[in-house]
Amino acid sequence: GNNPNQVGLAQKLAALEGSERAFFLGSGMGATVLAHLAVLRPGDHLLASEWIYGGTRRLFNEEFGKLGIDVTYVNPTVARNWRRHLRKNT
């Protein structure tokens, strides 16, 4: 944002981490959206745990489909489930 305190804090964190930029967001869901949309593109496939936070599941179900991102949910306790559902576009 354009809040001077937020900008200053982000610059300091970026310097500490040795990165170009850092972001501070008002919510965990904001961070979830930003992180996923930074790497996912239309046509991509995302594997997610069946046990994710309900708000995140709702985001994936209701919004990612509109963006052309396919989501598959797997039981996270069985490693072969993850491998079995991998696709070339995951």
Domains (count): 2
CA(first)-CA(last) distance:
31 Å
Unreliable segments of 5+ consecutive residues: none
Strand residue percentage? 5-15%
Q: What's the count of strands?
A: 2
What attributes characterize this protein structure?
mainly alpha, 4 helices, 2 domains, 90 residues, single chain, two-stranded parallel ribbon
Description:
- With 90 residues, this protein is mainly α.
- It folds into 2 domains: 1-39, no CATH class; 40-90, no CATH class.
- The protein contains 4 helices and 2 strands; from the N terminus they run ααβαβα.
- It has helices spanning 4-17, 28-39, 54-64, 79-84, and strands spanning 45-49, 70-74.
Q: What's the quick description here?
A:
The chain is mostly helical and about 90 residues long. It is about 50% helix and about 10% strand.
Secondary structure layout plus pairing:
Elements (H helix, E strand, L loop, with lengths): L3 H14 L10 H12 L5 E5 L4 H11 L5 E5 L4 H6 L6
